[in-house]
Amino acid sequence: MNDTPTAVPGLPADNPFSSRSTLPFELPPFDRIDVSHFRPAFDVGMAEQRAEVEAIATSADDPTFENTLEALERSGRLLDRVAGVFFNLASSHSVAGLDDVEAQVAPLLAAHGDAIRLDPRLFARIAAVHRERDALGLDPEQVRLLDRYHTDFVRAGAALDPASQDRLRETSTELSALTAEFKRRLLADTNDAALRLTDVADLEGLSDGERAAAHEAAATRGLDGYLLTLILPTAQPSLARLRRRPVRERLYTASVTRGLRGNENDTRELLTRMVTLRAERAALLGYPDHASYVVADQTAGTLDAVTTMLGGLVAPAVRNAETEAAELEALLVADGESAPLQPWDWAFYAEQVRRDRLAVDTAALRPYFELRRLVEDGVFYAANVLYGLRFSRRTDLPAYHPDVEIYDVAGPDGAAVGLFVADWYARDSKRGGAWMSNFVDQSQLLGTGPVVVINLNLPKPPAGEPTLLTLDEVRTAFHEFGHVLHGLLSDVRYPRLSGTSVPRDFVEYPSQVNEMWAWEPDVLARYAVHHVTGEPLAQDRVDALLAAQVYGEGRATTEYLAAALLDLEWHRRDPNDAPVPADGVEAFEAEALQRNGIAVPLVPPRYRSAYFSHIFAGGYSAGYYSYIWSEVLDADTVEWFHEQGGLRREAGATFARELLSRGGARDPMEAFEAVRGRPPIIAPLLARRGLT
User: Where are the domains of the chain?
Assistant: First the structure.
């Protein structure tokens, strides 16, 4: 895929970033990369791109698409190489020294990006090409690239006066530093807040495998006893099975107080400053608030469209949650516990409902969901039937951690497509949550194929023990692999439009669609096999599982909407409002939820502000609504797949050709309509969530 690599001037030849990798698909040579290599590579990479951009900006030739837009797309190759590795590792495997480098380079990168996007000479050339675009004979992808660059520069402040641009630079630099520090503190506090237990009896309700994993987690940190580590959301999986109520309360409290404990890792001062800076930046760019600025560049288009959709779901979601709560409190009392029901009780008694009334014991299902079989006979199988992709494990390629697996990916004709990197397990060096990213973007212009990585946070069992998944973890694996498919199947010319480079409120849509195959009978029959006996999951249990999917949607929708609306409330603040003090964060939360009619004490937001990584460290500020906005498209598309006969190559080929492969090279809603044959409707989503 690449030419013979040549070393970059100014960077020592023994620095692995000094030339393009010679490994398949330019996989980074992780076995040669050390923390000391990053800062020099960043410095030289930024200098190299500045020189490339200076040559474009000062060219004596009249601006053209080729000498301006394509030239910009070719610039910054070294910087992209080092950033692609660095920021993935900063999230997946933040070893000693890496956070120090991030603190150093984050503001430098922000200033570097601003220097490019606020260069008046460069913007003048882009604007000149943009004015003449209809007369240039550009193809649709070139038009998309030109429009995207012009929009990016305008939204970055290229049309502002010099004084406003200077202030924008200052806010960008400070925001970058704050984001890096928020991420560092949250990881540290999440690790520190893990619940340590010394009495095995406190683990009553957990399986042998879960107890062993808790013991292993403690031993890894040099502790006696057991350690229940925390995942990123408020709801912790063990709450559904821990029998002892005081233990559940301790675990719940550990989860919801992260970043709020007044220690050195408290995040409140950081997030309130970020909110203030974002509001100021939006005002400089001519928007009433940060949320309006963000949504204007999404498929939703306006903040009113978002708030109307979310607001219409609040009342039915809360009503359903209250009905569910009444049923669960009756179970709690019948169990001999004292009313009222508490947030830490919900998952435990909801599990009883699934087991006793809906005939679904999710804990008893875990032996049927073994990771290796799920991946190879479930996730990979569905991708093969739908898209013709084949995955072959590579053990000869270097990985950045011993737990990481790498796969060759081939297409229907046997031709190499890219590499898939799988990082399944939780560890202290990895941030919480689940996500997909790229080490290398697909681009015909640059001659590169995709190297795509998926991260989950599964508890790692002791050596020799199987990795057994919960229902939510099964769903998450299929969800994140939907993002992987978006990256692997990309077939565009320009890196700016590659793979998941689409609006934030569209990017979750393909991944949510991919969740449907987890429960497709043909797929489920292949991976849902008892890891010891080889017995397939019985059909009556499958039927009960599918019937139970809608149960609990009142709570699930309420906790999601609470987080989405909290995000918008933070980012609808007027820049003239007095900043929220650090000790006022919890009061702000309570008032925001009350104002939106979603203050349900039994159902806290999926993320509270102090550990809301999506919006304060993950690029989703004023965009967390995108999951349910995308789910409107997803639910409608699931109906389309069923109309096409379900798991069929013809349907997969259409979805890949019209949507997945186009990345940002096509208007997102045009891509949707090319598949569905019409604009989306909300009815399938309401039916799915039991909100009709």
Answer: 16-159, 193-256, 268-358+552-624, 366-537
pLDDT confidence of 358, banded at 50, 70, 90? Answer: confident
At 550, is the secondary structure helix, strand, or coil? Answer: helix
Q: Which tens digits make up the pLDDT trace of 391-411?
A: 999 999 999 999 999 999 999
Domain 16-159 in CATH 1.20.1050.40? The answer is yes
Find the catalytic residue in 210, 480, 515, 553.
Answer: 480
Answer whether residue 600 shows pLDDT above 90.
Answer: yes
Cβ neighbours of residue 654 closer than 8 Å, sequence gap 6 or more: 644, 675
Rg from Cα positions in the chain:
25
Residue with tokens 């010394």: 198
Tell me if domain 268-358+552-624 and domain 366-537 are identical in fold: yes
pLDDT one-digit tens code per residue, 103-134: 999 999 999 999 999 999 999 999 999 999 99
* Alpha helices, DSSP H, located in 367-431: 371-373, 380-387
Listed residue (610, 569, 626, 625) closest to 593, CA to CA: 569
Other beta carbons within 10 Å of 601: 11
DSSP string covering 503-522: -HHHHHHHHHHHGGGGS-HH
Whole-angstrom distance between the N-terminal and C-terminal Cα of the chain? Answer: 51
Which segments of 215-257 are extended strands (E)? Answer: 226-228
What residues pair up with 391 in beta bridges, in sequence order? 409
| CA distances, 284 to each of 159, 302, 609, 690 (Å) | 11, 19, 25, 43
**Mean pLDDT of the 217-223 span:** 94
226 Cα distance to chain centroid: 29
Residue 609 and residue 653 in contact, taking contact as beta carbons nearer than 8 Å: no
Fold (CATH) for 366-537: Neurolysin; domain 3 (1.10.1370)
Average pLDDT, the chain: 95
Residue 293 backbone dihedrals phi, psi, to 5 degrees? -60, -45
Of 22, 76, 25, 4, which is closest to residue 450 (Cα–Cα)? Answer: 25
What's the CA gap between 199 and 554, in Å, rounded? 35
Model pTM above 0.85 = yes
Active-site residue flag, 329:
no
